[in-house]
Structures are given as C-alpha cells and as structure tokens.
Amino acid sequence: MSTIFIPKHIRPMHGRLAYNDCALFHDMTNVELDTLESCADQTKCNAGDYLFRQNAPSDHVYNVISGTVAIERVSNNGRRQVLGFLFPGDFLGITNSAHYDYAVRSLTKTELYKFNRKRLYTLADELPHLKTNIAEISSRIFNRILDQLYILGQKKAHERLCFLFMQLLERLPGARPDRVELYMTRQDMADYLGLTIETVSRSLAKLKADGLIAFPQLNVLQILDIAKVSELADT
Amino acid sequence: MSTIFIPKHIRPMHGRLAYNDCALFHDMTNVELDTLESCADQTKCNAGDYLFRQNAPSDHVYNVISGTVAIERVSNNGRRQVLGFLFPGDFLGITNSAHYDYAVRSLTKTELYKFNRKRLYTLADELPHLKTNIAEISSRIFNRILDQLYILGQKKAHERLCFLFMQLLERLPGARPDRVELYMTRQDMADYLGLTIETVSRSLAKLKADGLIAFPQLNVLQILDIAKVSELADT
DNA sequence: CGCTACATTGACAGCGTTCAAGGTAAGTGG
DNA sequence: CCACTTACCTTGAACGCTGTCAATGTAGCG
C-alpha cells in the first residue's frame, strides 16, 4: 500500500519542501504509487560506509530516508572534490550513463530506498507523472551544481562557508537559524568548497569573531545574523 | 529531405565526434529526420550578440552549426561565471525549467539550428532514438560541468589553463596540437576558469617560458608538450 | 596616424596553503 | 574514575599564488 511505501518522516515534507528533491511521488495516484513500490527495496549504511564507489555500474536510484550522505569524486592524483551533501528526501544515482561518475559515502547512519534503475525508467514511460518528476529532480540537481560552480569560481573562503550554511538551512530537514546540525567534518566542508581544512577553521573563527555565527557545540551551528550570512552567500 | 537538414559541415563529424554533442540525429531513420526537420528553424548571431539572456523563457533548443558561443551566468553583484564554450555540433538550451538559468553569448559569427523545445520534447515521446539521444547529450553536458567543478575546486591557475587547452583540443572541430584557434578572449578564459585576466596572462607566459606551449599568433595556441599539458590538466 | 579594445607586465598586498604544534572531545581499558 | 589513545579541530608562522592597481604594449580599424 502506498501509505506504507512513503514513510511517515517523509510524508510531512511533501507540502513544505519546495527546494528538496522529495518529489518523485508528487502528483501520483495511489495506484501509481503501488506500481512504483514494486521497484523499491530498502537498504542502510553505517557512518563512513560507501553506498557505491566511483565507476560502479549504475544499477540503482536511491532516495534518502534518514541520515546524510556526501557525493564525492576522486581524481587520479588523489585529490577529492565533494559534489554535494544529500539529506532525507533527496535522490541520488539518477544518470544516463552505465556507470556512476562519483562515489557516495554515508556521513551518518543512513536508510535509503533503492529502485532498480532500469525498471524505474521503464515505469516512467508508462507513468507520466513519474517521468515529469524525474526530469524535475534532475533539473534541480543540475541547478545546484551550477550554484556550486559559481561559488568555487568566484567566492572567497568565508563567502563559500556562508553559501554552505544557507544550503544547509534550506535543504536539511529540521535546520533552523538557531540550530543547524553539521553532520559533516571540517574536511568534508573543505572538500566541498574547494578549500583546505585550515582555511575552513580560520574562516569559521573569523565569522564567529564578527558575530555572524556561533557554535554552541562543535558540530552545531547557530546563524546569528542571517541577513549578512545570506548576503555573503549570494549567488 | 534529411540530407539537406544535416548540413555538410556537420555530417562528417558523425563518425568522429565521440565527445562532441552532435548526436541528436544519431541512429535515426530518414523518416525520423524528416519529422525532426519540421521542428527546425535556422538562426544566426554576430560576435558579441546574446542568443538569449538569463531568465528568458526557455522556448528553444539550439544546435551550433558554425561559430563559438559562451554560456554565462551573472550574479547579483555582477560577477560573471562562464559555464562553458560550445562549438559546431554542440547543443544548448536543453532544460526542464521554463526559463534558461544562463545567457548565451556569441564569440564569433554563429549559425544555429533552432528547435521549438516543446515540439521537440513531444516528438521525443514518439521517436525513441531522439529521446535516447537527448538523454545522452544531457548526460555529457552534466559530466562536463562536473569536470569543471573539480577543476575550480582543486587546481592551480596553470593547471586550469591546461584543462581548457585539452578541452579545446578534444571538442573544437579542427583543433590540432600544433594549432588551436582561441576564439575567446583572455577575459572569457578567466571567467571560465575562475581566475582574473592578469593571472591568465601570467600563467600563459609561464607555460610558454617552460616550453609547454607557444603562441604563433595571439589567438592561436600551439601545444608543444602534450604529455605534460595533459598531465597538468588531469581530472 | 591615432583611436580603441585587448593583452602583458610590474609592484605590492592579501588570501589561502603548507608545515608544524597544540588543543579538544569521545571512547577504551586499567 | 582516570590515564591513554585516537580522531578531529584550532592556531601559529612562513611562504607563495593570485588579486589588485597601474602602466605599458600590441593589434585591428577607421
């Protein structure tokens, strides 16, 4: 039944999450959702586990139920670029190539739905809403990458961090200006923003000294001056 | 007739251009090509002209026949990021949103095919090859953006330039190691690579002094040591 | 020839990286 | 409960790359 298929902690997002990717089920009838369920399986990961590695065959599309994951790309010489952080409701693995061009690493304990990619795509030919939704999700992912590209090309360290904060605030379920849980390490932030861990640390210290943010705990961020942070983050 | 529809200077690429986007017509029958032609129109631009601006309604998909264009994104504060350079055979304007998230500026005199986007997409529902090809093209565009993201996040100025050179060598029709025409200005390169024009100039001078490249003319590049350039460019 | 746009070069400052040391927090075992 | 370990984070100092500002050079064009 479709009411079982969509777990409680995702359901309430439907109305709220305009920016999140949780839209695969959007506008679909219960009958359609039942069909969709036939492609679905569930899986889980522990913190640090790789869901899949770079160049693995792209057999599945995943939907994060709970937890946080990082999309990474590692080059020949070992340098790592984090392409994004994904949260509950987000999709990953949507691709047209036969292999994933990136790896996915869990930052926390993570539960995911797992769809057979080919079956999902075949199904999309029959269910127009599903196809529209997949296109819509791809489009959002693409736009996020463009934002990140702009940030890496044009922004200073402290601006990049503000960009990350605003992204977390918008996309991380449960994040509020006075409490944003940072599930990633400083190194993950650095690799996402194209900086070193030291620069991240120093820039955080600067933003803190300037009264824009605070850290009630090491991994809990408080945004004190959201107007300024938002301005610095601006794309 | 489909033999008219695909102009001579594109036709020969079909077999060769594994990395170029000129694949919309791939595997299609003459009947299918005739149908495709019904969506097509032709247009041209002068150097410096904008084909369309950021946030314009995304009414058309374009295919470059001749010339070079730059995809750009400008932010609120005026900083510009070039998202890519496109050459004959390349597509642009493939999107799922109602508006373009970027502007397209001609670097040279440019001729393009122009497809009504909605009609093209409707047609894609009927012609399976066309739909596959559109997906294939989108996938390549996405991968190029990921490469660029990595470059901006991890590489030094001279490495970024080598990356650009290798891209031009692979994607610009007619480019050979001993002769790569640079249709873009130094400023365009800078905005593409997330650098300033001065840094571009200095890094070019350094690469020249090291004997990796030469400039027979200001806008003609010669790659003297392709092994090293390729190594520096490596993603 | 002189105008204009584009490119190069120089001097200098500043931001970010690198290398190194020290600090903090959580978990383990005595 | 406390020392010890480990992983992560912060801070410091020096260096170097890149940005900024300014001047000069160069190619194309009327």
UniProtKB/TrEMBL annotation, chains A, B:
GO terms for cellular component: cytosol. Pfam families: cNMP_binding, HTH_Crp_2. It comes from the Bacteria. Keywords: DNA-binding, Transcription, Transcription regulation. The keyword Transcription regulation applies. One of its GO terms (molecular function) is DNA binding. Residues 155-227 form the HTH crp-type domain. Residues 24-93 form the Cyclic nucleotide-binding domain. The keyword DNA-binding applies. This is Crp/Fnr family transcriptional regulator. It comes from Alteromonas lipolytica.
